[in-house]
Write a structure and sequence with these properties.
three-stranded antiparallel beta sheet, 2 domains, 11 strands, Alpha-Beta Plaits, alpha+beta
Amino acid sequence: MVFKKLNIPLSPSKTIGPVTSLEYLGIILDTDAFEARIPVDKINRMCNLIHQLSRKKRCTKRELLQLIGHFNFATRIIIPGRSFLSYLFHVSCSVDELHYHVRLGKEARIDLSMWEEFLMHWNGRSLFLESSLITNVDLCLFTDAAGSYGYGGIFGSKWFSGNWDDDFIRLAHHKRNIPLLELMPIVISAVLWGANWSRRRIIFYCDNQALVYILNKR
């Protein structure tokens, strides 16, 4: 009533409350789960656009940029998605005019598929991360890889090890992508023990300078 008397306009959708889950600037803030996430309608819209483009061999620059814009917004919540934006943007820059068509090759389709995976399973970001950074040394967490033998990692008293698959090692050497071998045990450690690192901000030390550069650039 006070706002009405003062002729101050209010949007009914912005005056909901008190609630523990509220959409603000296109993002749902949930104080029960202590997380921020993307609303379902936005998820569905992006997934529909992904399905539409995935069935095409070509699309217009405008169509691709529209989807990239949605993805860029989603990276506020889906942090890993940032690594899968640069190639799509590179594809969009292959032509000048918005109505020109760009080719959606294998690499672009893989990125689109990865984004669909993120949208369906990675939609949620903790609101309260620890303020200080810790290192993998502080956690007694170490990983390493040998190009000819295999890979392994330890986390306290837990550990894993394995031999390279022949096809995988041939791919890495053929592409001269040794950083891929170094990245693999880091990823495996995150899959196995990531639940123990909840809300922590961890610095990994790696002896492959190329991998350090790639990950920091991403």
